[in-house]
Amino acid sequence: MTYHNFPPPIFIPKSLNHSRPELLTQSANSSTELGLPQLPPIPAYPCPFLTDVEIQSYLVPLYHRGWCVRPSTSAKKPAPELVKRFQFSSNASLESFKRDYEQVTTSENHHAVREYADMPPSVTIKVHTHQALRPAAYPDEPRPRRKLPGITLRDVRVAYLLEGHFARYVRSGGEEELASLRPSTSVEDQPNTAEAIEARRVSSG
Fold this sequence. Notes:
Layout: E1 10-11, H1 52-63, E2 68-71, E3 80-87, H2 91-108, E4 113-117, E5 122-127, E6 129-133, H3 143-146, E7 147-150, H4 153-170, E8 178-179, H5 194-198
Antiparallel strand pairs: 1-8, 2-3, 3-5, 4-5, 6-7
């Protein structure tokens, strides 16, 4: 399996200097994460699309961890989704991360599409909310009409929690892990407004 559109992976040292400790997540339910704000609260159902403020607060920091926004290739309806490839130095680490993924998605009751590759060991995570709540087109628009796939705080939470788990491998003293941490070079892949995310609902190609 190839990943033609992803930036090349880079090596991460076994130990990391946390230059911004005030940004590290302190949640007891997730691993300490580099460069990410506090884990956002669990949203109510149906979860609204990310607002411009939430995008700046929660989504933009993920871009610096290698996440991007792309049109979904698996959803039944056109949808934007969060995407990242996690790459490992051994199959054993990848297998362990699979268990971490199951723990996160079970506890969050929110699942993602996974695409695995063997050489090198890696998994691409693609996540979006199937029944999200878009903004009302007019006052008192009924909620059922507003349900549409999109990116919400549920997806952000899954991404943050996976980053917390992945940090354990990066900081492991036993081996050096690989990760696609270089931000996407495409401006379209890093939307910083709700309108820009909406433009990623369908492929421009």
